[in-house]
């Protein structure tokens, strides 16, 4: 199976793209993990990869079909985060 990883480092962000080949999935059907303090978290039977990506990245995009999956994550520098917050 082939996996492609691309990284782009810019002045205001880092972008990471990961693509694989194979049976995909419906990213819209992934369940949101309970909050860390919630009692249901102890019984959580799913992975935390996608929920963590969505929480930790400034932008997270997942495209998937029957030929493979592509994930794009963007993390902005602190200066860019402040600029975006200020509008």
Describe this structure in words.
By secondary structure, this protein is of the alpha+beta class. Helices cover 20% and strands 37% of the residues. It has a 4-stranded antiparallel β-sheet with strand order 1-2-4-3. It has helices at 49-56, 78-86; strands at residues 3-9, 13-21, 59-65, 68-76.
What's this model, at a glance?
The protein is built from 2 helices and 4 strands; from the N terminus they run E-E-H-E-E-H. It is α+β, with helices and mostly antiparallel strands and 87 residues long.
State the oligomer. single chain
Q: Give helix and strand order, one letter per element, not per position.
A: EEHEEH
CATH class: Alpha Beta
Amount of helix: 10-25%
| Tally of strands | 4
Mean of all residue-level pLDDT scores: 85
Taken as a percent bin, the fraction of beta residues is 35-45%
Give the termini separation: 43 Å
Give the spatial strand order of the biggest sheet. 1-2-4-3
Total DSSP helices: 2
Rg from Cα: 16 Å
Query: Uncertain spans, ≥5 residues at pLDDT below 50?
Result: none
Second-tier CATH architecture:
2-Layer Sandwich
Count of the domains: 1
- CATH superfamily assignment? Histidine kinase-like ATPase, C-terminal domain
| Biggest sheet statistics | 4 strands, antiparallel
- Give the structural class: alpha+beta
Sum up the structure in keywords.
87 residues, 2 helices, single chain, Heat Shock Protein 90, flat, four-stranded antiparallel beta sheet, 20% helix, alpha+beta
């Amino acid at each position: 199976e082939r996996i492609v990883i691309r990284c782009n480092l810019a002045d205001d962000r880092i972008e990471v793209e990961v693509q694989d080949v194979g049976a995909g999935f419906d990213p819209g059907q992934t369940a949101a993990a309970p909050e860390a303090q919630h009692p249901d978290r102890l019984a959580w039977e799913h992975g935390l990869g996608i929920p963590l990506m969505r929480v930790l990245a400034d932008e997270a995009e997942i495209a998937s079909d029957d030929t493979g999956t592509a994930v794009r994550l963007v993390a902005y520098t602190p200066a860019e985060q402040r600029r975006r917050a200020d509008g």
